[in-house]
Amino acid sequence: MSRAESQTKTNGRAVAAILSATIGLLVMGIVNTAAAASSSFNTFVLNVGKLWIPNATGIGPYSGKETFMLVAWLGSWGLLHLTLRKKSLNMKIAAIVFIVGLVLAAMFVYTPFIDFLLGK
User: Is residue 112 in a domain?
Assistant: First the structure.
């Protein structure tokens, strides 16, 4: 390996971390909205949280929402890391995707927006 190749910097690992955080936040928001739309899904989400969080009943379906978010975040981080780790990508695009995803995720947990989506 030449000196120039060894000094080439890649940012794929950072982009993978940013995009996986976006995916985790979006999954949290989507699961939150779906739980508000369906009582049976809300019960399912609570039961998922009860599988591994002690006293999950005390915090309700939030425990399951956290579980879905954690699985999506960690799973996507692993896959994206393996896919992007040796690449040099445009960080501006990753930042824009993160900001848009963050705004969407915030809207999916904002009760007036959920009520608007569900026609309440």
Answer: yes
